[in-house]
Design a protein that fits this description.
By secondary structure, this protein is mainly α. Helices cover about 75% and strands about 0% of the residues. It has 21 helices and no strands. Helix 8 packs across helix 9. About 55% of the residues are buried.
Length: about 475
């Protein structure tokens, strides 16, 4: 691949990085008055990065001597990442204006762009060091975003917890990378795969464990989930929506690429880790959510629970398994963004955010449209047909069964019943409990439109999209094999 083609292959990240630098200069000169311009320009940059995926950025092959892989798998993941990032920018101005009393600062969308650039590098990594650089770029932006409301003690606490535990996880991951490099002699995924195929090595096995431990933190899988509820609750709601969607997709896609491209010869070794993390995440995410009184903490445990189901597809280690993970993450992003869009509408008469589940009581009578949308999201997250959440779970279970892991699939399916309890409890609260004081917040045209769009996408109407989604995810999965 020539130099010009390599530049075109990495065009999405170049667009994001260039756009972030340019808009940072605009923010520096324009100050607070430039916030709206910078926000909408950031959305335009994300759209431009998405359009650039149509060229060499998704054509396959290798760039920069194997450090970067512009294939269909990366393109699929980047579409989800860029879409979630754009939604997180669009919903932020109104939230910050109502919550903090002043307009959003222009650094927010710039940080989202830099984080998206890091996530793009993560999902296109063909080398362990490219992986680490992309992950750190994403993480450093995320630490600032978590503590973006500086005068809010909860936001500052969330940022500090995320930073401390994130630094610990990065150290674990880097130690694993150093072990893999020391015993394989290379950081390229292709060379690492050859080393694992060459015979059993205790050093490589320890490296595998540490790498997967570091990645487990990034996807908030048990037992490295401890940061998720506190950070999700303390961070501003648009930031929480961002954390629960775009970085989650990037981290899961990165874990899939490392497992399949770099460590597939050690399938039987890492499959045990993935199966344990999957079942533990499903059970703990479900049980931990039952006693929650905050809707944001409940959605944090829901995120842990859903990562467990995505790992069911990864444990299969087959093209069908990877395809099912991609389908699951696409549907998960829509369900999660829709849920947080509803949370944004939970406000009292003075414009303050209300996050208690109790405040949803009787919402079917005070805000019937909003209650219907949240019920759709909850039923879908629970995996109840005919909503798309059911198809997402079915696809990963089928992939596991086809790989011969039918006991594992049966245990995961049985554990999903626990999670259905707290999702249905929210529906019961909205439709059968006595009404609480009505929410004063009303969705504007953008937020209302996004709620309708996401609810429609996971309703039976969304089944029309399953055919194209299945073909696209299958092509993306084949790119790794």
């Amino acid at each position: 691949m020539g130099n010009s083609m390599q530049i075109l292959a990495a065009l999405p990240e170049l667009v994001l990085a260039s756009g972030a630098i340019l808009l940072m200069l605009v923010a520096a000169w324009g100050g607070q008055a430039s916030t709206r311009l910078v926000s909408w320009a950031s959305v335009a940059v994300l759209i431009g990065a998405g359009i650039s995926l149509a060229g060499p950025a998704s054509a396959g092959g290798e760039a920069f001597d194997g450090l970067y892989r512009p294939d269909m798998f990366a393109a699929f993941s980047k579409v989800l990442i860029f879409a979630a990032a754009a939604v997180s920018i669009v919903i932020a101005p109104r939230y910050f204006q109502r919550t903090s009393g002043d307009d959003l600062r222009p650094e927010y969308p710039v940080l989202i762009l830099l984080s998206a650039a890091g996530m793009g590098m993560m999902v296109s990594a063909g080398d362990l060091l490219t992986l680490y650089v992309g992950l750190e770029l994403q993480s450093l932006s995320a630490y600032v975003l978590a503590s973006f409301m500086r005068r809010d003690a909860r936001s500052a606490e969330a940022g500090l917890k995320y930073f401390v535990l994130g630094a610990l996880a990065s150290g674990i991951l880097l130690y694993g990378i150093s072990l893999v490099y020391g015993f394989s002699g290379t950081t390229l995924f292709s060379g690492v795969a050859e080393a694992y195929a060459g015979g059993r090595s205790m050093g490589l096995l320890f490296g595998l464990v540490f790498v997967f431990a570091g990645l487990a933190f990034k996807i908030s899988a048990v037992p490295f989930h401890m940061w998720t509820p506190d950070v999700y609750e303390g961070a501003p709601t648009p930031v929480t929506a961002f954390f629960a969607s775009a970085p989650k997709v990037a981290a899961v896609a990165l874990a899939v690429r490392v497992a399949v491209e770099a460590m597939h010869p050690a399938l039987h070794d890492w499959r045990q880790i993935v199966i344990f993390a999957s079942l533990a995440s499903i059970v703990l995410g479900a049980v931990g959510a039952i006693g929650q009184t905050s809707i944001k903490r409940l959605l944090a445990y829901s995120s842990i629970n859903n990562v467990g189901f995505a790992l069911v597809g990864l444990a299969a280690g087959t093209p069908e398994g990877v395809s099912s993970v991609l389908i699951y993450m696409a549907i998960y992003v829509v369900m999660t963004l829709g849920s947080f869009l509803v949370v944004l509408q939970m406000r009292d008469a003075e414009g303050r955010s209300i996050e208690t589940i109790e405040s949803l009581s009787g919402m079917s009578r005070t805000r019937p449209g909003l209650a219907l949308a949240l019920a759709i999201f909850m039923f879908s997250l629970a995996g109840i047909p005919p909503l798309l959440g059911f198809f997402a779970k079915l696809s990963v279970f089928m992939a596991a069964v086809q790989a011969g892991l039918w006991i594992f699939a049966a245990l995961a399916a049985a554990a999903s019943v626990i999670g259905a309890y707290y999702y249905l409890k929210i529906v019961k609260t909205m439709y059968f409990d006595e009404p609480a004081p009505a929410f004063a917040g009303r969705a504007d045209a953008v937020e209302g439109g996004l709620i309708v769009l996401t609810a429609a996408a996971i309703s039976p109407i969304g089944w029309l999209l399953l055919g194209p989604l299945g073909l696209w995810s299958a092509a993306a999965a084949r790119a790794l094999f």
